[in-house]
Design goal:
With 396 residues, the protein is α/β, with parallel strands linked by helices. The protein is built from 14 helices and 18 strands. It has a 7-stranded mixed sheet with strand order 5-4-13-14-15-12-16, sandwiched between helices. Residues 4-310 form the FAD-binding domain.
C-alpha cells in the first residue's frame, strides 16, 4: 500500500465515514474539523437503498434502528390548523424497504464512535494547500504545517477545499432557501409531522422519539443573496403568514440554520492528489432526500477504490468517479423536481394540491398511487451495485 496518509477535511457524514473505511482498508486518516467536536442534534435525515448496505457493512444497523425517529404520522394542515390529509409516518416520509430515519446528530455520533483510533484535529481547518509530486503540504488555520500523501475535501456545500483547488462557479442555486431550527413543542406533537403550504412558502414542524422538543423547517422560493441578519430575513419572507408560523418564528432556537438550496456540479472530483466527496463534490440539495445516502455511499466507494488500487491515487480516483458518477447523476435529478412539489408557486396550485391530498387520503388505492409517486426516489437510492472491496497489496 502506498499513499497511506490521508487528510480528510470535514467531520460530517461523508468525512467520518471516509475515515472509517480508509482506516479499515489500511490507510492512516486524519480528520480536520473547524467545529470543537461532533455536532449533536440536527434535523432528521433518511438512509435509503445502497446507503443501508454501507452502514450494515460498518456494523451499525442495529444501533441506527435503535435510534430511529419513530415518526408515526404526517399531516398536511390548512391555515386554521385543520388536517387536510393524514398518512402514516413512513408513507408521509416516502420510506420503504427498511429505510431508516434518524437525527443527523445521532448518526454523526455513531459514525464517530466507530472511528476510535482515528486522529481528529478539532477547532481547525485548511488555510492553504500546495501539491508536490509525492505529497500535499497543508497549512492549517492554527498555523501548523503538515504533509500528507493525499487530501480529501468532505467540507460540504461551501467547501473551502473545492474553492482552493477547483475555483468557484460550481454551485448552482436552485432558487429556494431552507431554514431549520429547534422550537418548543407547543403543539404537543407526539412523533408526528405537520406541513403547512402557501404560495412559494412551506413550513414543516415535527417531533421525534429522540427529541423532547420539536424542529421547524421553512422552505421558500427566493434567489436573492442571503443577508447577514438571517433571522430577520426569514421573518420578512413569512410576514403575515397564518397557521402557527408567527409562533414558530418567535421561538427559533440557538441552533438556527439558513442556507440556499443548491447543487454542486463538477466535471471531475479530483485534481492530482486532492479529491472531493459528499456535498463538496456533488451536493444534490436537501430537496433530493438523498444527501446523507450520497455521502455514505460516496465515502465507501472512494475508500474502496483507493484500497483496490493499493493507494495509487490516479487509479483510485478514476475508479471512484467511474463507479459513482451515474449514481450521483440520477440522485441529483431528484432535487429540482422535488422542490417544485414541496414549494407550490401559486394559490391555484395550493388549492388543487389540498383537494387532491384530501381525496387521496380516503381512496382505497392510495398506497399504490403513493408508491408510484415515490418510485423515482427509490430507483435512485438503489441505482448502484456496491462492490465488496478486497485489499490485496504487498508490503511497501
Amino acid at each position: 500500500m502506498k499513499n497511506t496518509t490521508v487528510l480528510v477535511s470535514g467531520a460530517g457524514v461523508a468525512g467520518i465515514t471516509l475515515a472509517y473505511w480508509l482506516r479499515r482498508n489500511g490507510f492512516v486518516p486524519t480528520v480536520v474539523e473547524r467545529a470543537r467536536g461532533i455536532r449533536d442534534g440536527g434535523y432528521k435525515i433518511d438512509i435509503r437503498g445502497a446507503a443501508l448496505r454501507v452502514v450494515e457493512r460498518m456494523g451499525l444497523m442495529d444501533e441506527i434502528r435503535a435510534r430511529v425517529t419513530e415518526v408515526r404520522a404526517g399531516s398536511v394542515v390548512d391555515g386554521r390548523g385543520r388536517r387536510v390529509a393524514s398518512m402514516d409516518g413512513d408513507t408521509f416520509g416516502g420510506r420503504e424497504h427498511g429505510d431508516a430515519e434518524i437525527l443527523r446528530g445521532d448518526l454523526h455520533r455513531l459514525l464517530f464512535e466507530a472511528t476510535q483510533g482515528v486522529e481528529y484535529l478539532w477547532d481547525d481547518s485548511i488555510a492553504d494547500l500546495r501539491q508536490a509530486d509525492d505529497h500535499v503540504e497543508v497549512t492549517f488555520a492554527s498555523g501548523a504545517t503538515r504533509t500528507f500523501d493525499l487530501v480529501v475535501g468532505a467540507d460540504g456545500l461551501h467547501s473551502v477545499t473545492r474553492s482552493k483547488v477547483f475555483g468557484d462557479g460550481h454551485v448552482r442555486d436552485l432558487g429556494y432557501r431552507v431554514s431549520i431550527s429547534s422550537v418548543p413543542n407547543h403543539l404537543d406533537l407526539d412523533r408526528e409531522e405537520l406541513t403547512y403550504v402557501s404560495p412559494n412558502r412551506t413550513v414543516l414542524v415535527y417531533s421525534t422519539a429522540q427529541d423532547a422538543g420539536a424542529k421547524a423547517m421553512f422552505l421558500f422560493a427566493d434567489n436573492a443573496p442571503v443577508p447577514a441578519d438571517q433571522r430577520q430575513y426569514l421573518a420578512d419572507r413569512y410576514r403575515d403568514e397564518s397557521w402557527e408560523v408567527p409562533t414558530l418564528l418567535e421561538n427559533l432556537g440557538a441552533d438556527f440554520y439558513l442556507d440556499e438550496l443548491s447543487q454542486v456540479h463538477l466535471d471531475s472530483w479530483s485534481d492530482g492528489r486532492i479529491a472531493l466527496v459528499g456535498d463538496a463534490a456533488y451536493c444534490a440539495s436537501a430537496a433530493s432526500g438523498q444527501g446523507t445516502s450520497l455521502a455514505l455511499v460516496g465515502a465507501y466507494v472512494l475508500a474502496g477504490e483507493l484500497a483496490a488500487a493499493c493507494g495509487d491515487h490516479v487509479a483510485g480516483f478514476a475508479g471512484y468517479e467511474a463507479a459513482l458518477r451515474e449514481f450521483v447523476d440520477v440522485n441529483q435529478k431528484l432535487g429540482p423536481a422535488n422542490i417544485k412539489r414541496m414549494v407550490l408557486a401559486t394559490k391555484a396550485q395550493v388549492r388543487m394540491s389540498m383537494v387532491f391530498l384530501s381525496l387521496l387520503s380516503r381512496l382505497p388505492g392510495k398506497d399504490r398511487m403513493i408508491a408510484k409517486a415515490m418510485a423515482p426516489l427509490h430507483r435512485a437510492a438503489n441505482a448502484i451495485t456496491l462492490k465488496d472491496y478486497v485489499v490485496r497489496c504487498s508490503a511497501a
